[in-house]
Specification:
- By secondary structure, the protein is α+β, with helices and mostly antiparallel strands.
- It has a single domain, classed as Orthogonal Bundle (Arc Repressor Mutant, subunit A), CATH 1.10.10.
- The chain is about 65% helix and about 15% strand.
- The chain contains six helices and three strands, in the order H-H-E-H-H-E-E-H-H.
- It has helices spanning about 1-5, 10-20, 25-30, 35-50, 70-90, 95-100; strands at about 20-25, 50-55, 65-70.
- The radius of gyration is 17 Å and the shape is elongated.
- The protein starts with a helix and ends with a helix.
Length: about 100
């Protein structure tokens, strides 16, 4: 849970699950508001945990691509289930019903 609750982690996982493997610059643009240092730190942590992979091509400049591993895809499946549950609860929430009646 510590891994998932870290800043930007779930957003990064969501971007990679919806956009597919992405280069670092594209990820930085898609995860609006994240600093380069924070994105780098999160990507390194997720790579170390086996959630995503890093592929580097030795070109000038180097092309680095990040994508989800099987473990990462499995995790995204669980997060999708949590998202479905949260959306159902939000619609069924008494507070939400009260807001809709106003």
């Amino acid at each position: 849970m510590n891994l998932l609750s870290g800043p930007w982690t779930m957003y990064i996982l969501w971007v990679l699950s919806t956009q597919g493997p992405s280069r670092f610059g594209a990820l930085r643009r898609q995860v609006e508001g994240v600093s380069t240092k924070m994105l780098t730190d999160r990507l390194r942590l997720l790579e170390r945990e086996g959630i995503l992979y890093r592929h580097q091509e030795m070109t000038i400049p180097p092309q680095v691509t990040y994508g989800l591993t099987d473990r990462g895809l499995e995790l995204v499946g669980v997060l999708d289930q949590l998202d479905d549950l949260a959306r159902r609860w939000y619609v069924d929430s008494p507070a939400t019903s009260e807001l809709l009646l106003r």
